[in-house]
Amino acid sequence: MDFEPRATRKDITGALSSPEFFSYGVEAYEACKKRSLTSDIIVEQKKVQEADLVMFQFPLYWFSVPAVLKGWMDRVLCQGFAFDIPGFYDDGLLKGKLAILSITTGGTADMYWKTGVSGDFRYFLWPLQHGTLHFCGFKVLAPHISFAPEFASEEERKGMVASWAQRLKTIWNEEPIPCSPPWYFGQ
């Protein structure tokens, strides 16, 4: 796609609401209301609007998303499109849509448990699933995680792909996770 991940003044095609002091969030919100965001953002927002389920497929980088995906979220899921104040979490502007994370890791599954060297995987899903997706109104499905595919045998990788393919066949029957602190951090 060659998507530009940097959120800059160039994202606003019209006049700024406050040209003497540039605030990206304020200007993107005003531009969203006036439909004066750049065409690459509007095209991506249209894809989200037309989707019932949005899948985010990415390799885990430093316990987060790659920079281009972070930039996509920053630019596309702006106030006025994905959320408003008020109008977030269960009332987010993308309510009624599902979202799922499909993640590959560089580490093995045993590294991502409470007693593992990296800690419980759900701890670092919180900002992404709750703080971004749920904040925008998405109902979030349990993530699909393929642990260390580059270190797995070809047979194990085929099993990972088959597992994901099988899950996709019944994904419309899944219940969203409760995006609440107890799901991520326990009682």
From TrEMBL:
Keyword Phosphoprotein found: yes
UniProt enzyme class: oxidoreductase
One Pfam assignment: Flavodoxin_2
Annotated compartments: Cytoplasm
Cofactor: FAD; Zn(2+)
Its job: The enzyme apparently serves as a quinone reductase in connection with conjugation reactions of hydroquinones involved in detoxification pathways as well as in biosynthetic processes such as the vitamin K-dependent gamma-carboxylation of glutamate residues in prothrombin synthesis.
UniProt similarity note: Belongs to the NAD(P)H dehydrogenase (quinone) family.
Protein name from the UniProt record: Ribosyldihydronicotinamide dehydrogenase [quinone]
Organism this protein belongs to: Delphinapterus leucas (Beluga whale)
